Amino acid sequence: MRFSGLRVLKEGLTGNKGWRPHWRDPDPKPDYDIILIGGGGHGLSTAYYLARTYGLSRIAVLEKGYIGGGNVGRNTTIVRANYFLPGNAEFYSHSLKLWEGLEQELNYNVMLSQRGLINLFHSDGQRDAFARRGNAMINQGDDAILLDREGVRDHLPYLDFDNTRFPIYGGLYHPRGGTARHDAVAWGYARGADQRGVDIIQNCEVTGIDIAGGQVRGVQTTRGAIRADKVGIVVAGRSGQVAAMAGLRLPIESHVLQAFVTEGLKPIIDHVVSFGMGHFYISQSDKGGLVFGGDLDFYASYAARGNLPMVEHVMEAGMTLMPMIGKARVLRSWGGIMDMTPDGSPIIDRTGIDGLYIDCGWCYGGFKAVPASGDCFAHLIATDRPHPAAAGFRLDRFRTGRGLMDEEGTGAQHNLH
């Protein structure tokens, strides 16, 4: 079943009776070649690329809930490639290129909107830092434009330019950045993987990982034991818990990151806007709601909800940057569980157990990384070699100290995220 304008028109004229489910709902088989634990964006994209690129089909994606119910449906939908450090920069550049061809690749509308992203700066030091970042982005082959105060005003006239505490000096404009529809991305990859023979098994929680002689043998689930020679852990904020089933202790802390959506409004915010001093970011969805967020809640938690002090903090930042936001009514909020590494960069690597692989530690970058994460993790699982774009995401860098990627400039300490 392919989507097209003609197909939509035909179904609309015939009562929409020809549509079929996007993917099957199979029972788990006794054994597979590869099991992926986690049916979020990263797990589904990994399954898709394993099937599409490497021709593998005896693959199961095990999801303890429903597709789209985890972090892939609990984020602020931002897509960008404005990273600075070698190792991260080429990875997110690779991801953005995959995003730009994703709708044609999947024959599915993920609502990618490259509306542009503007990171504001508020001091001479921030200007210098963003100028360096912009030059690094251009050298990487991506796009960056350094805007002065009036250049920002041309794009974002509704900001408070007279704020004496946080004056707007300018901004770094990333025209190819933007947003995508988060659950549509999950559905598109699920549909594409299913079409290539992957079993997507919902309501199937993994309760144990079977290991014998240093080799993974399969998993235990709420729907019975399933054998496999290769198992990938792709469970975002639950990475530490699932890895513990294999006797592994990961350099991960899980924190809550809240996000908010207002009532639908007429179009006003044409870009993604990031407030450098207040750690506040905002865009407007296709339905008109303002989608925004800010800092982590700064305590370890597995609860997909937040606390009121951080709600107040985010609202204060929004009011400081754009006082007009005070007229909007917040309809809902949620919390995503962020798997935070000490250096702010992810892990895509083999573990010390033969056949067991890990993809985790996405910190704030999980959604924008979905295509490249799946592509690189699939390459690792299929070939047992790291993808060139993810060669720096080694697990042992935290043990040896070699190759740490301190993207946030916060040092290799959890408490400084």
Task: Write up what this structure looks like.
The chain has 417 residues and is of the alpha/beta class. It folds into two domains: 27-75 and 183-251 and 343-416, FAD/NAD(P)-binding domain (3-Layer(bba) Sandwich); 119-178 and 253-340, 2-Layer Sandwich (D-Amino Acid Oxidase, Chain A, domain 2). 28% of the residues lie in helices and 26% in strands. The chain has helices at residues 5-13, 41-54, 89-100, 102-106, 124-140, 149-155, 182-195, 239-244, 308-321, 370-383, 397-400, and strands at residues 31-37, 59-62, 78-79, 117-121, 145-148, 170-174, 178-179, 199-201, 206-212, 215-221, 224-233, 253-264, 272-275, 280-284, 289-300, 330-340, 347-350, 356-360. Strands 1, 2, 8, 9, 10, 11, 17 and 18 form an eight-stranded mixed sheet that branches. Strands 5-6-4-13-14-15-12-16 form an eight-stranded mixed sheet. A two-stranded antiparallel sheet has the order 3-7. A hairpin with a 2-residue loop joins strand 9 (206-212) and strand 10. It is globular, with a radius of gyration of 21 Å.
